[in-house]
User: Fold these one by one.
Assistant:
Number 1:
Amino acid sequence: MRNTAKITTAVLAAGALTLGLTACGADQDAASDTSGPLVVAASPVPHAEILNFVKDNLAEKAGLDLEVKEFTDYVTPNTATEDGSVGANYFQTQPYLDDFNKKNGTHIVSVVDVHLEPLGLYSHTVKKADELKSGATIAIPNDTVNEGRALQLLAANGLLTLKDGVGTAATPADITENPKKLTFKELEAAQTPRSLDDVDAAVVNGNYAIEADLKPAEDALVLEKAKDNPNSNLLAVKEGQEDDPRVKKLAKLLTSPEVKKFIEDTYAGSVLPSF
């Protein structure tokens, strides 16, 4: 499952990059034209919701023409940013971005950290993590960074032990102790909340948890800690576009007191400001 998913993702990414290169001249012209709207690729929740708050309440006063384009996967926003189809994206963490650039030859850079979506363990069958039975099946994201985060979350809560130093590159092969003999079902991150009726528990990214009407602050059996967490979600652009005045305006608005209050009031601890 893991290898198939990774190969599929790689093929899709390569195809998108090839298409981007085909229209390279036109895309570069669009990216360099700062007179038009800034088009930002974003996951629907909470990223697009936060951007639409900015668009509806703050952008006009700041002189920013903002257009929000929603994507439900973790590949297209980066390939679209690389080929100039969009001017920026807001959906990912720095570890994921670093891994994506390395594997796909893209040149996308962070502009500013905005928020943290704590990764959580959820279940329809148990109320506490220590109630998981021996041999329980846990669904985890199959992309490199989020799978590593999922395993680190389980390790931090005593469900397993990982090799020293593996960090977010951890895979099930790095498990050194597994007292409950847990088994893992590796799925695309978006599929993990949908798997809850078929597995004993699932580790779900915060944005997908919210979309599935889960409340991370209330429903998670265990939840990532916010303190010293390197997995803040960020605004990103193609290298060289950092000084685009539209990008600078958006970065300032996304880290404004108004957006901080919107995040705190709207998500009640399920999404946390990183500024």
Number 2:
Amino acid sequence: MAGFRIGRGRDNRTPQRQQAQQAPPPYTGGGQAPAPPYTHQQQWPRAGGPQGGGGHGEPEYFGEPHPQYGTAQDPYAANNPGHTQMFSVHDDPYDGGATYRAGAGPAAPAGPRLHWKQLLSGIVLRPGPTFLQMRDYAVWGPALVVTFLYGALAIFGFDEPRDEVINATLSNAVPYVLVTGVAFVLSGLVLGAVTHTLARQLGGDGSWQPTVGLSMLIMSITDAPRLVVALFLGGENSLVQVLGWVTWLAAGALFTSMISKSHDLPWPKALGASAIQMIALLSIIKLGTI
């Protein structure tokens, strides 16, 4: 029984051994003191050192922060055996503050405002960088002018309206053409606003002016090849119909790219945001049901 008490007791260490394990290592003040040896009953260092706010044996996160914690003069420096080190998520070397995230507000513009010639050519030749660079700039001037001209000429791409305009007098034909151009501008504004609203509902954070203006330009520019051919062959020509389907698919790709860059959305959500505008363009322009 005596052997059992000595070998299985609660604490079979002698008082001298306990005192030697609990006593901190001597520190002479010259240079960095060596780390104390790790023992089973080693106490956690106090955050304030010998003068810290925590009591004897408190964990370091209950005391006051030490001004020189982790320096070369600290005997309880971080990463020593038996100690812990606090870290911060704000010092991310891979995040310089320029990341564009949905819901966090628009980031800084990717470049200066493009001239209207560079804007129109960029939508066709380099759509991705163009949309990214113009995502924070309003493009009302080019959008209104191009859409109005497109709408004024679009009436000649349909057989019946073109015959009515050609057979009408000049005083009647001019107002008819102007009204059609204004109607296309208003339609582009409404459809662009719907697309912007859907993009915001899906988690986008882009501005409404660039979204609406760029959507009007995409609608007008992508249908221009079909309209040019329809002026000579008529809207019911099979070649015009095939060209209309091809340009409609191209418009869908440009809408998706624009919304993805302007609102920082993945392409499935960007495509869903432009669904209503795509359906409207298909029924009104491509299929000739105006």
Number 3:
Amino acid sequence: MKFLTPGEKIFSICNYLFLALLAAATLYPFLYVVSASLSSSNAVLSGDVVLFPKELTLQAFRQVLTEQGIWLAYGNTVFYTVAATCIQMAFTIMGAYPLSKKRFMGRTPISFFIAFTMLFNAGMIPFYLTIKELGMLNSRWGLLIPFAVTTFLVILLRTNFQSVPEEMEEAAKVDGASDFQILTRIYLPVSKPALATISLFYAVGTWNSYFWAMVLIQDESKIPLQVLLRRLVVSMNPTEGMMATTDTTVLFSQETVIYATIVIAIIPVIVVYPFIQKYFTAGAMVGSVKG
């Protein structure tokens, strides 16, 4: 049994205290939003809600869930997230696999140009003008195709593919397997942790994104949930449908409705994450020791 020196004990105590404070600072805003969404408007407006709900009620959630605009935006977000993740993973795999092969001619210059985009880009206005010239303004494709690849994730997956033993590929070639069969039957199955991790990055990034959707989409029937949520949070002004109620004895504030909308927006990510956490834990550092 190892005994800690006084200095090590002090460091450990300070380290635990710092991490505890950091965790509390990170979790408190989330807990407050949940508590405020479950509390009465009087409790929220008077500042009585600090950590736990006061005067528990689900009225704000009822009002949000009866608003058709929320469901439409929710459906758009689900579509964008699923479609974008599938497209992004397809392009990322197709880019990472050939770049992981030493026999691939032009591997070095292509890798350089791909990495170059991590340091330099044309900027927002040229990017917007490019999408406009491609005819993707106010189109769902404008939120899918221009964001099909993240350079860092291509490099991460390429490094993971390089860690697969070459003997497995050579044995498959002896059996007459093509490159496509080698990719689908060897590389992808053994790279599940990395693929799950990258898919999580793509999915969460798409789910939470709002800026380019706000810039590129003018049609209200195509906006994702995050754009609607951003409008609610910035203007603090829910739609008339959210604030309408047939029960005049029930009072609720704009803040409680907005907090309820925020909670509904983050539920899917919280629900899905535990199911892929094991892959995320295993894949977070995959390929990090081999260049």
